[in-house]
Specification:
This protein has 280 residues and is of the alpha/beta class. It contains ten helices and twelve strands. The strands form two sheets. The chain has a seven-stranded mixed sheet. The longest helix is centred in the last third of the chain and has 17 residues. The termini are far apart. Bound molecules: zinc ion. The site of zinc ion (ZN) has 4 residues, from loops.
């Protein structure tokens, strides 16, 4: 089994989105008040080359995101910017790795934000799994108001509901196993969105934690800094705490979608060191 990173362009957001300031509503309003941008951050999707079939986690950005600067939605117009070329979309990059779209058995989405579902069109023959709560939140005009782009989903998009049993997996309250071998596990990591999930891939050496936007980078997770868009402070903190507990109990490579170090961390199999700060 092998996990690979695929960078589908990059994104820039306000720094108060990546690292929330203050609490509650003031924290969320802070994203719009902030004039400071982050650096350009990568947007990764992941390929799990598994003996039971290839699994893709998130589908990354699509070139349609280059038009968001003209959007009427205030978030898309003012608070985010994307870079992506057509051959950086996930489909062409998979083909370059020798993986045809029909070789991908399943695609799991951590959530439906536009930089995670932007490559859906490349997977017409793939089983696509999405948490039902996330699908409800993202659908229709209310979804568009919330900043999702259901209007950009392919017409055939009809994902299989990813129902997480209330079966704890380590510190995570709900989980489901994606493979018969039990080594690819979806866990509930609510916060960034209410129904956000992360995917844990276990091999005999370590766990690869495909975190989506549970935090924008590893430092923020270790430092218990929630983002600027999570609806509920307590829920978001509880998820970061669960991730730290998991990483303390298991050797873990932590792989957020937008962490500039994710690809190097994956190739060097660099483990989370939760207590590194205190020892310095
Ligand atoms: Zn997101």
């Amino acid at each position: 089994m092998k996990v690979r990173a695929i960078q589908t362009g990059s994104v820039r957001i306000k720094s108060a989105q990546s690292q929330g300031q203050e609490h509650g509503l003031r924290r969320r309003a802070g994203v719009f008040a902030d004039s400071k941008w982050t650096e350009w951050l990568p947007t990764y999707a992941w390929v799990v080359d598994h003996p039971e079939g290839v699994i893709v986690v998130d589908t990354g950005q699509g070139t349609h995101l280059l038009e968001t600067g003209r959007s009427l939605h205030p978030y898309h117009r003012w608070e985010v910017a994307f870079r992506i070329e057509r051959d950086q979309e996930i489909g062409p990059q998979l083909r370059a790795l020798g993986i045809g779209p029909r070789d991908v058995r399943r695609a799991v989405l951590t959530h439906l934000h536009v930089d995670h579902d932007g490559g859906l069109a490349h997977f017409p023959a793939t089983e696509i799994l999405v948490s039902p709560g996330e699908l409800r939140t993202a659908s229709g005009w209310l979804g568009r108001l919330r900043g999702y782009m259901p209007n950009r989903w392919p017409s055939w998009f009809d994902p299989i509901p990813l129902d997480l049993a209330t079966e704890p997996y380590g510190p995570f309250a709900a989980s489901t196993r994606l493979t018969k071998a039990g080594d690819v596990v979806v866990v509930a990591t609510p916060g960034h969105t209410a129904d956000h999930v992360s995917i844990i891939v276990e091999d005999d050496r370590c766990a690869y934690f495909l975190a989506g936007d549970a935090s924008y980078d590893e430092r923020l997770m270790i430092g218990d800094r929630i983002d600027g868009v999570s609806a509920d402070d307590d829920v978001a903190h509880a998820t970061l705490r669960a991730i730290r507990q998991f990483a303390t109990a298991h050797p873990t490579v932590y792989l957020p979608t937008h962490d500039r170090e994710s690809a190097d961390r994956l190739s060097g199999r660099r483990l989370v060191d939760v207590d590194a700060d205190q020892r310095q």
